[in-house]
Amino acid sequence: MAPEENAGTELLLQGFDRRFLAARTLRSFPWQSLEAKLRDPSDSELLRDILQKTVKHPVCVKHPPSVKYARCFLSELIKNHEAVHTEPLDELYKALAETLMAKESTQGHRSYLLPSGGSVTLSESTAIISHGTTGLVTWDAYPGAVEDTVPFPPARTVLELGSGAGLTGLAICKMCHPWAYIFSDPHRNVLLNGLSLEADITANLDSPRVTVDVAMVHQLSAFQPDIVIAADMLYCPEAIVSLVGVLWRLAACQEHKRTPEVYMAFTVHNPETCQLFTTKLAEPPRRAGIRWEAEAHHDQKLLPYGEHLETAMLNLTL
């Protein structure tokens, strides 16, 4: 296989494993590119390679997505395989049969492969709203907002507002090694996620030890963070009003002290909602309001998300 063809195959495989492990919607997969590759006789092992990168990936074996998701993925893979009239692949049908016999669960996993070679895995409810909150589910738009919060220097204390399923914090802890990371969320049921750090994160003595705490809104005055972040919180007016209230409380806690860097990364679901947020920042209780400026995007794409989604990040001054 020519070097350029090999590079194309590797890119295709990466497109499948990153999306599958993160349980992305099936329509986001590069099916057309796969069909074109399957028509090339030199790529006879491609489907086996895809199986190894998806349902047989070590991360998937340890932390599988929902049974329904794996079943739908394999059905679509078989459909694309049969469309090009190639020889049947027994491994495909065997893998599908295993999902058909597997017991359904109310939980599934999303895993995100990091550039460092590690991964972040979340255990999530398969329901859109679980235990009265959307915080137990990672939306397809969420990783896009998370990326903008990641490139922080180490040796900092980070407070996250609206931690939800915990993807932002876990990614930052693994990639940026802050001294301390505080997860906070207004809904107590996010504690069902069982946020914890695996032993390998702190095993490296050359890296700062990460201290993890889970906080509620009324505890914010006890923390003196260097950095405050929130990812994809601008999804409805009620959430925005609550978020701005927390920011004002943080501003009051920081009087006569060094103010933290504050970053708000979000997906532009509705321009009017974003406008409401910036308007609320300028309202009392403090006459000067909370100042903000837009931050430039960084080019490196770390996590799989909808490429058509518009994300933005604001730098706030409390």
From TrEMBL:
Query: Any one Gene Ontology biological process term?
Result: methylation
Report which residue ranges the record marks as coiled coil: none
Instruction: List, in alphabetical order, the Gene Ontology terms for molecular function in this entry.
Output: methyltransferase activity
Name the InterPro entries on file. Answer: FAM86_N (IPR029426), Methyltransf_16 (IPR019410), SAM-dependent_MTases_sf (IPR029063)
Gene3D superfamilies this protein is in? Vaccinia Virus protein VP39
Residue span, FAM86 N-terminal domain: 12-98
Spans traversing the lipid bilayer = none
Q: Which UniProt keywords apply?
A: Methyltransferase, S-adenosyl-L-methionine, Transferase
Q: Which PANTHER family match?
A: HEPATOCELLULAR CARCINOMA-ASSOCIATED ANTIGEN, PROTEIN-LYSINE N-METHYLTRANSFERASE EEF2KMT-RELATED
Which family is this sequence assigned to?
Answer: Belongs to the class I-like SAM-binding methyltransferase superfamily. EEF2KMT family.
Protein name per UniProt? FAM86 N-terminal domain-containing protein
